[in-house]
Write a structure and sequence with these properties.
Blueprint lengths: L1 H4 L1 H15 L3 H12 L3 H24 L4 H9 L4 H39 L5 H10 L3 H29 L4 H9 L1
Helix pairs in contact: 2-4, 3-4, 3-6, 4-6, 6-7, 6-8, 7-8
Length: 180
């Protein structure tokens, strides 16, 4: 919200966020392990680095998506900036935010698994896949892949259901509900 509200932050932080999104994951994961250790903070740092930019761009696009007519109506109602945000801009932005959440749900899972390849000495799906593939225990590797796929699919399905509840008014959601 601050980046949307202050144009100088957009000019300063959007290029920086874009730069961080282009950094290769296999290069960042070992550095995060050096900085944050082998526990979950290193994986969380890598996941945040990878998922922040798509979420930021989608959210900013959503906050700017309200139409001129709706903005003029809010002006006629003498709505304060907080009222405009709550009554117009956030509801219009919610489909954009949920799109980013759905993309980031699977992206964060993949990123966490790849981060575990480099930064987990004893546990996690990434560690299991790396270790067992080196030992040629392919049933365990495929089991870990299936577990990761099911977890990602369940998270995505949960977000789709939540999206339908929150954005019931949006044409894309109404279209899917009418088709059922």
């Amino acid at each position: 919200l601050m980046i949307d509200r202050l144009p100088f932050l957009q000019r300063g932080l959007l290029p920086l966020a874009n730069l961080t999104s282009t950094v290769p994951l296999v290069g960042v994961a070992p550095i995060a392990v050096m900085w944050f250790g082998f526990d979950w903070p290193s994986k969380a740092a890598v996941v945040v680095l990878v998922t922040f930019f798509p979420a930021l761009v989608s959210t900013l696009a959503g906050l700017k998506a309200s139409g001129k007519l709706e903005q003029e109506l809010m002006y006629c109602y003498a709505a304060t900036p907080r009222q405009r945000l709550r009554a117009l801009r956030l509801p219009v932005a919610m489909p954009f935010i949920f799109s980013a959440l759905k993309v980031n749900a699977t992206l964060s899972l993949i990123t966490a698994i790849v981060a575990e390849f480099f930064g987990s000495p004893t546990a996690g799906l990434g560690f299991r896949i790396s270790t067992e593939s080196a030992r040629m225990h392919m049933p365990v590797v495929w089991s870990a892949i299936v577990v990761a796929s099911v977890a990602g699919s369940l998270m995505y399905a949960l977000l789709v259901r939540l999206d339908r509840r929150v954005n019931f008014w949006h044409p894309t959601v109404r279209g899917t509900a009418a088709e059922k």
